[in-house]
Amino acid sequence: MQTIKITSTCTAVSLALCASFLSGPIHAADSTSPPWLLSGRWQQSADRLQATWPGVTLTAQFKGSAVGVVLNDERSYYAVEIDGKAVEQIAPASGKRTIWLRKLAAGEHRIELIRRNETPDYVGTVYGLVLEDGQWLAAPAAASRKIEFIGDSFTAALANLSTKRDCNEREISSTTDISQGFAIQVARQLGAQWQTNAMSGMGLIRNWNGNLPDRDFRTFYARQLHTDSTSKPDARWQPQLVVIGLGINDFSTPVNAGEKRNTEQLATDFQAAYRQLIKELNSRYQQPQIIVTAMKLWPDDQQRPNVRAVVEAEHAAGNQRIHYLPLEPLQLTGCQWHPNLADHQQVAQQLLEQIQALKLNW
Questions:
Q1: What is the mean pLDDT of residues 195-199?
Q2: Of 288, 270, 266, 267, which is closest to residue 279 (Cα–Cα)?
Q3: Are strands 193-198 and 146-151 parallel, antiparallel or unpaired?
Q4: What are the start and end residues of each CATH 3.40.50.1110 domain in the chain?
Q5: Which of 107, 120, 162, 192 qualifies as a cystine partner to 187, CB 3.0-4.6 A?
Q6: Mean pLDDT lowest among 19-33, 134-148, 192-206, 322-336
């Protein structure tokens, strides 16, 4: 049995593409080649990969008829694809275990493991991949095109598989699959490597219904793992395009009595914080193209004008690399009024049309 596992630590906590290491015999790849490709905010340690963000992905290539995934994650589901086709959905369970995929056709295969859910207060662990009577091939090359998606539960594809609005926590978790969300749909259509930094319930400066006023999306966006304030992103991740969908939680509930901002101050501070985020992205990612989305929200349609005002201010300041995309009305028939699969397909189509119109040189 051959194993791919981590044997040394990356120089920092990786934001997206972290160098991988290997142990055990290698075939059809020299000893300096990483046996897998990592995408997303994985935290790498001596013998494991850990994650709290959704959409982190491990991809490897092998020759053989059986491959196993070794993991310990009691909170998140994982989608497993072989040669581009979904073959297994790994459900949460406690304890280290190996999930085998056997009876594959003899020959060369590509496996992709995608973490479906976000777990901001829990760290999921993947120990690696194992083979039965097979051999590892060279890791897939990273795509030159790179897209980062920043957002909330809509970007995280919360409950996108559900067909009802009233759900318990177990139903929400089991019907969430970011691999079928608009972000990964768009990235795959464009042949791009993705990073999905999305967090449900969190707003840019105000969370849903004013919850948890001592923290917001910015608190956690700066972290590789939500649970570790010392974990920092890796500057090697350099996307040419960033798609931002923030503001739903800031504006979808009325400001409550006792909150630190009234409605007017919320709008002012939101615009300032959004422009600061754009400034930071421009500096970190060397002036990427940025698409910002917004939609009509109950009760008073505050997200669209505030996001549009941010774009107008950026244009007035000379930044023509930011683009406003108002989303068409959505069905929102998923749990807790979240987008369903058709909604995600609709958003993906809107984004693809916008991206194609930009004629990016990537």
A1: 98
A2: 288
A3: parallel
A4: 146-358
A5: 192
A6: 19-33
Q: Among 47, 202, 54, which Cα is nearest to 119's?
A: 54
**What is the percent of the chain with per-residue pLDDT over 70, rounded to a whole number?**
91
Taking 70 as the threshold, does the pLDDT of residue 2 lie above it? no
Within the chain, all domains assigned CATH 2.60.120.260 are found at 2-136
pTM: 0.92
Q: Would you state the structure tokens that stand for residue 295, as one six-digit string?
A: 């939609």
Residue range 146-358 forms a domain whose CATH class is alpha beta
The residues that bridge with 72 in the sheet, in sequence order, are: 125
Residue 242 phi, psi (nearest 5) = -125, 130
DSSP characters for 317-359? Answer: TT--SEEEEEPPP----BTTTB--HHHHHHHHHHHHHHHHHHT
Cβ distance 325 to 354 under 8 Å? yes
Query: What is the DSSP annotation of 27-43?
Result: SSS-TTS-SEEEESS-E
Please state the φ and ψ torsions of residue 47, each to the nearest 5 degrees. Answer: -140, 20
CATH level 2 (architecture), domain 2-136 = Sandwich (2.60)
